[in-house]
Amino acid sequence: MKKILITGGAGYIGSHTAVELIKAGLEPIVLDDLSNSNPQVIDRLKEITGKEITFYQGDCNDRSTLDTIAKTHQLAGVIHFAAFKAVGESTEQPLKYYRNNVGSLITLLDFMSENKIPDLVFSSSCTVYGQPEVLPVTEATPRQEAESPYGNTKKICEDILIDIVKSQAGLRVISLRYFNPVGAHPSSKIGELPIGKPNNLVPFITQTAAGIREKLTIFGNDYDTPDGTCVRDFIHVMDLADAHVKAFTYLNDKSKDFYDVFNVGTGNGNTVLEVIQAFEKVNGVKLNYEIGPRRPGDVVKIWADTKKINAVLGWTPSKTLEDSMRDSWNWEKSLK
Ligand code: NAD
Ligand code: UFG
Q1: CATH code, 201-232+267-329
Q2: Which residues, in sequence order, are CB contacts of 284 under 8 Å at separation 6+?
Q3: Which CATH class is domain 3-182+234-264?
Q4: Has this prediction a pTM greater than 0.85?
């Protein structure tokens, strides 16, 4: 069974990907420092998959931890999720973000090249597109200057990956540009666990419905969109997890150095109000919300052109916005 190191594998997207890797007959080796996750996730992964999960608690900036893992396991590849992701915090503490997000990638690339581990799937983000002029965005849409140090770390990491593959380091790399991941595993055993007040829309919706937050504020309804609220491409985390399995399998079949980038979204844009309405309808819950001022720095509208990932990786999403809203709510309720 091929072993794949998953950095940040106890986190939101990494944990769901671990489930899908096991389903595909691959063995995840999870490395996480638990800076933004809970060790219980590992037990939950065992419950869902019925398999023992190899887990290392450690920092992927720490070369000695990586070397210990490589001595014990022959790794076929790495899926690198580990990063800090709070946009606001990144503007206050940029070095924390550059050190962790860029530093960990550099350490990993050294480690992979010295240990002849060929395949890497990297977590990038649609944030690299900023506010695009033409929609939907394809992978050829020009990237824009990042709005935040967090966004810049994704852009820098993508550039590092292009350069390292050109240098013939014996690496095959795919960067996946995620749109807005939402939803949870249908078992409600794993899901997104925001620490403190959520910044993102869907955790704020579910926490409001659960009574943890008094009300949701919609940041602006006077944008140039169908109902005035911002538009995003909300992708179910299980579909996103499946994209990683497809990306890894595709890379693993290649014989030469390789770099490519793929959008991972549904290909549809939904407004903030549509998301709220879908949540209310599918769950039979009334949400307390109000319209507030615009949030500075918000992209007005973005959604993915997914033709490339459909055609090349043979990936298409299977879940609807309603599935995402149901699974997110079931997950929130399971936390009580
Ligand atoms: P998450 O915070 O839930 O997961 C990241 C995990 O990495 C956490 O468990 C954290 O403890 C761990 N971690 C952080 N730094 C580490 C380090 N140095 N060593 C070991 N472990 C470390 O976040 P997520 O939503 O699962 O995001 C995963 C990746 O996807 C990140 O790279 C993120 O930037 C990217 N991404 C996320 C979104 C999103 O909206 N969730 C969108 C686009 C891209
Ligand atoms: N929103 C509200 N009220 C809230 C929270 C969000 O109206 O309480 C709105 C936002 O204004 C935005 C939409 O909901 O219009 C989505 O906001 P999110 O914060 O959930 O998502 P963003 O697309 O703004 O940003 C997210 C991550 C970024 C990442 C980006 C692209 O937070 O880190 O997706 O992947 F870069």
Answers
A1: 3.90.25.10
A2: none
A3: alpha beta
A4: yes
pLDDT at residue 168 above 90? no
User: What was the pLDDT predicted at 8?
Assistant: 98
Domain with CATH 3.40.50.720 in the chain: 3-182+234-264
Three-state SS at 256: coil
The answer to whether residues 289 and 216 touch, using CB atoms and an 8 Å cutoff, is: yes
Residue nearest to atom 24 of ligand 2 (CA): 298
Contact 29, 73 (CB under 8 A): yes
Q: What's the mean pLDDT when you consider all of the chain?
A: 97
What digits encode the pLDDT tens for the residues 286-295? 999 999 999 9
Rounded to 5 degrees, what are φ and ψ at 104? Answer: -65, -35
Answer whether 44's CB lies under 8 Å from 25's CB. Answer: no
Q: How far is CA 243 from CA 33, 79, 135, 306, in A?
A: 24, 12, 22, 12
The pair of three-digit structure tokens given for residue 118, joined into one six-digit string = 């060929």
Q: Which ligand is nearest to the CA of 205?
A: 2
150 carries an active-site annotation: yes
In Å, how far from its chain's centre is CA 106?
A: 19
Atom 12 (ligand 1) nearest CA: 8
Smallest CA separation from ligand 2 atom 20, residue:
200
Residues of the chain with CATH 3.90.25.10: 201-232+267-329
Listing DSSP states for 193-250 in one string gives ---SS--SHHHHHHHHHTTSSS-EEEE-S-SSSTTSS-EE-EEEHHHHHHHHHHHHHH
* Atom of ligand 2 minimally distant from the CA of 86: 33
